Amino acid sequence: MASGIRDKVAILSAGCSRFGERWDVGQEELMREAYAEAMARAGIDASEIQAAWYSSHYDDIGAGKSGLPMARALGLPDIGITRVENFCAGGTEAFRAAAFAIASGSVDIALAMGVEKLKDTGFAGLPTGSRGTLAPMYMPTHTNPGNFSQLANSYAHRHGIAREDLRRAMAKVSVKSHANAVQNEKAHLRKEISIEQALAAPMVAPPLGLFDCCPVSDGAACAILTTPDIARRLSGDPVVTLKAVQVVSSNGWEASQQQWDGSYVHTARIAAKRAYQEAGIKEPSREIDFAELHDCFSITELVTLEDLGLAQCGKAWSDMLDGRFDFSGDLPCQVDGGLKCFGHPVGASGLRMIYECWLQLRRKAGPRQLEKATTALTHNLGGGPAQNVCSVAVFGLHQTGGA
Asked: Which residues belong to CATH 3.40.47.10 in the chain?
């Protein structure tokens, strides 16, 4: 196996806009909001950024699928800017590209940005696909809540979980995230809810109710990457480094074979296995201190915890009810509120998760700072359970003399 990227790339700084219904601004303003925060903490001039990548899933204003909107919005001086798109893993894909540029020695400082203005599309949920979008992902008979309700029902069937128990565990997922978001001024939804409220909410796609679904929102997030040595010189210790980043795309196996029973996400298991190998992690449930998972629906968080080896197969639902993934639990998840309370501006979500990991590992998260935060994981899932793109990244504190 190749040597991987472990400890070759550091996050010098990161920034995040406020997420929500941002009717008063466009993509440019959202990018500038995130970029301004990152630059204020980076200790560099814009002229020192040598390359940039940005992710935005839906068509941009007047510039198509190019890097021009980011160049125009930030006034970056005559550098290469590449726009990437990889479904809901797009933000992590932009980060991965920038990280590879640093690790290869091509540049010393690179910028990764993710942004989306979903509220302006006019859709209550995610917009339908456009020309060039993979057609099977957007068949008119399929909806995202419908696809993930099938995941919930298959998961319950495989593990013999009573419907009432599963619904209560899914409600606890949302209750946890809402409680965490109260401490985060950048989150879209900042109001605590009870399990009873979640269970009594209108049904969307059984067993998923209203509070089991993340909202639609606008937002942007970014990260400035460099080498560990430069990061230490500019910002001092602690230095947050990338331990692993893996992206896996489904080839259609799940939808065309009877071997897949619909109760898990195959690509997540493969991406996690490769990421742990790259990061040198042997027992993820013990070695990962906290995780930012792609909780587009509450059932996704439960299933993902098992797919990533953070919970035993068939046990995440009971661990959730026992409080294991609460802010004060053994393995906190969505400590910033997650997709459930930030919403899911597609191109931005991956970098929003990375922003939170950077804050926590640097011990700059304010009132939501975790007591133990030395190793973090992010996960994105783009598409449906049967056909998707999955990313897994691991972050931690740099070890002097590491690989």
From this structure: 10-123+218-241, 142-215+243-397
Least confident of 64-68, 144-148, 164-168: 64-68
Dihedral angle sign, alpha carbons of residues 259, 260, 264, 268: positive
- Per-residue model confidence as pLDDT tens digits over 228-245: 999 999 998 899 999 999
Q: Residues with catalytic annotation?
A: 88, 344
| Four-way CATH pick for 10-123+218-241: 3.40.50.720, 3.40.47.10, 3.90.930.50, 4.10.280.10 | 3.40.47.10
| DSSP code for 168 | H
Average pLDDT, rounded, for the chain: 92
Mean pLDDT of 137-146: 68
Q: How far apart are CA 52 and CA 50, in angstroms?
A: 7
For the entire predicted model, the pTM comes to 0.94
Terminal-residue alpha carbon distance, the chain: 15
Q: Which amino acid is at 217?
A: S
User: Which residues neighbour 308 within 8 Å (Cβ) at sequence distance 6 or greater?
Assistant: 268, 269, 272, 284, 291, 293, 377, 379, 392
142-215+243-397 is classed CATH 3.90.110.10: no
